[in-house]
Design a protein that fits this description.
Pathway: Protein modification; protein neddylation. Its EC number is 2.3.2.34. It is an enzyme of class 2 (transferase). Keywords: ATP-binding, Nucleotide-binding, Transferase, Ubl conjugation pathway. The chain is of the alpha+beta class and 171 residues long. It has a single domain, classed as Ubiquitin Conjugating Enzyme (Roll), CATH 3.10.110.10. The protein has 5 helices and 4 strands. It has helices spanning 3-15, 22-27, 32-46, 136-145, 159-167, and strands spanning 52-55, 64-69, 81-86, 97-100. A 4-stranded antiparallel sheet has the order 1-2-3-4, with helices on one face. A hairpin with an 8-residue loop joins β1 (52-55) and β2 (64-69).
């Protein structure tokens, strides 16, 4: 699956070789982000919640992937929600960019797919925002929790959805 990992191994083997031209070495360099992602994706795939699935449309681009969350409890039980994640070049100093692709009526997700999750914020007042010690596993578990314990009606991004819930919980 991780074809980028095999590329990294190949590149490390070429580093020791003096026969490669300098120009070709510079085109084979792998970013710090990609080196981190190889480790993090392996850890992520080994520790996914049972309600989540990760899909890499291009196995050579670990920085772009899709997450499917299928909650097994709560208001959204039985639903299937798609998220698109893009990990920027400055990762792990900045958080991944995540967008919800599924239309959803949720207090922490707008109708255009923006997500209110503190760990996705570069700067957070409460100190729970992004930090270089966080990983993709934290992001996936956080997104999964938006459908259970992190569902927040008190400080919503989608005010209409939160007010609707407070007015009529059954609807």
């Amino acid at each position: 699956m991780l074809t980028l990992a095999s590329k990294l191994k190949r590149d490390d083997g070429l580093k020791g070789s003096r026969t490669a031209a300098t120009a070709s070495d510079s085109t084979r360099r792998v970013s710090v982000r990609d080196k981190l992602l190889v480790k993090e994706v392996a850890e992520l795939e080994a520790n996914l919640p049972c309600t989540c699935k990760v899909h890499f449309p291009d196995p050579n681009k670990l920085h772009c992937f899709q997450l499917t969350v299928t909650p097994d409890e709560g208001y959204y039980q039985g639903g299937k929600f798609q998220f698109e994640t893009e990990v920027p070049d400055a990762y792990n100093m900045v958080p991944p960019k995540v967008k919800c692709l599924t239309k959803i009526w949720h207090p922490n997700i707008t109708e255009t797919g923006e997500i209110c999750l503190s760990l996705l914020r570069e700067h957070s007042i409460d100190g729970t925002g992004w930090a270089p010690t966080r990983t993709l596993k934290d992001v996936v578990w956080g997104l999964n929790s938006l459908f259970t314990d992190l569902l927040n009606f008190d400080d919503p991004l989608n005010i209409e959805a939160a007010e609707h819930h407070l007015r009529d919980k059954e609807d």
